[in-house]
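The pair is quoted verbatim underneath.

:::
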Amino acid sequence: MLKKICAALILLLGGLNQVHANTTSVSLLHPFKGPLGDAFNALIEQYNTNAPAPIMLYSFDEAKRTYEDIHAAIQNNFDGNTPPCIVFDYEMGTADDQNNTHLIGAEEFIEEVNKLSPMDALKLDVERITPTLRRFYSDAKGRLAAIPFNSNTVVVYVNTAFFKDKHFPKTWDEFEKVAKNLKQKYPDKKIIAFGWLHGHLFDQWAAINGTAIASENNGLSGQNPKLTLTNPQWTDWLVFIKNLYDQGIIGLDQGNDAEKNFNEGKTIFLAQGTGRVPFIKLDPKHVRVGLFPKFSASKFKRYTSISGGGAFWIYRDTLDAYHTASSVEKDKLLLKLRSMRDFLVFLMSDNVQNQWEADTGYLSVLAKTPQKISYKNNLFKETATIGRTSRENFSVSDVSSGIKMPHYQDIRKIQLETLIAFLKDDKAYFDAHQKYLIQKKFEGNIHNKAEAALEVIQNKGNELLDAKKCTC
C-alpha cells in the first residue's frame, strides 16, 4: 500500500511540474498505467533514495500518455517544447527513433558521461542482454541505441470453465477442431480473440512459422526493407482465418475490449502478450496458458517475435547543454547526466528486471534465466515460463528476431483495416483502394480475395516505406 501511495505522489508531482534543462532533476516520460504504472513508479521511488538527481515524471497530457501518442510526440520533437531527458517508446517505433537526430545512442551516452565523471564510471554490460533484443535495439554499427526494458511475447490464455482438456492445441488445425466443438456447445460465445489483431495475426504468426513480412530480414539487416507478402503461406493463412471468422469462432474485439470479454466469459481463448497478465481478472485457478499455435503447414521450430515491450531512449539536449554551460551550471548538469546514466544502468540490474517480471508479466531482457522470482500467483509464473520458452527458442539469424521498419505503427494500421475489410467481405473498401491492386482483384473465390488483401497491404505499406527511408 505504501508503495502505491508513494507512486501516486510521484505521479502527482510529475503532472504538476514541467522539468526544465536548468534544474538538477531528470525528466522521464513513460506510458505505463494501472498495475504497470504502479510497478514502474515504485522503481522510480526506489532509485530516487540514492540518486545524484531525482527522476521526475515529465509533464504530459494524461489522456495522451499512450504508446501511440508518445511515439508521435517523439517524432514531432514535442512540438518544439523542452523534451524529457529519457523517454520510453514501444518496439514498433525503433527504426523511426534510430533515425531521430535529437536522440543519442545509449552506449554512446553512457561512455560520454563516464568521460566527464570517470571516478564513478558505470559500465553498461550489453552482453547480458538477450541476443535478439540486443540485436534489435542496436544501430548499424552494432552499438546499443536504447535500453531495452521489457520484452513481451504472445501466449494464449484459456478459460478452463469451458475448455477442460489438458491437451492444449499445438497447431491451428488442432485448434479449429476444438473450436468447432466449443462453438456447437456454446453458440453465443466467440471462441478466440486477439489482443492485437494485426500484431498477432501478422507479426506473431509470421515469426512462429519462419515466414518473412519484409525483405532484408524484416529490416534487421538492411536500411530499406520492403513488405513481401507473396509467399503462398500468407494466402493460405488468410483463407484459414476467414473460414474461422465465418464460423463465428474469431472475435474482432481487441485490446481492452478483448480482455474484458475474456474476463466476463464471453470469449474462451485469448491470445495476448505476457505483459497483460495483470489484466486477466479471472480466478487464476480457472486459467491455463499455452503457446501460440503453429500453422500446420510449417516445418519450422516454434518461434516468436518481439511483439511488445520497448526501450528507453535518451535525448541529447542535456549533454549538449553541458558542453556550452558556465562552470556553475556544469556542476548541476553533471549531476543530472550522472543520474540519467545511473538510472539506465539501474533498469538493467538483475533485481529490477526480476521485480518487473514478477509484477507485470513482461519478461526480463537479460539473457541469464532469473533466479527465484517471487511471482504474484501461479498464473504470473506460468505466463512467464511459457513466454520465456517461446521467446528464447529461436536463432538470432532468422526472420523471427523482430520487425524493424520505419512507419511500422502505420503499416500495422493498414494491416488491421485491410484484414477486417477482407473478413467482412467489404468490397467498397477494396474499390477505394483500387490503385494498390495491380496484379489482383477483390473478386471471385476466397483465395483470390485473400491475395488481393495481401496486395493492398504490401503496396500501400511500401508506399509509406518509399516515402521515408531508414538510415538507421
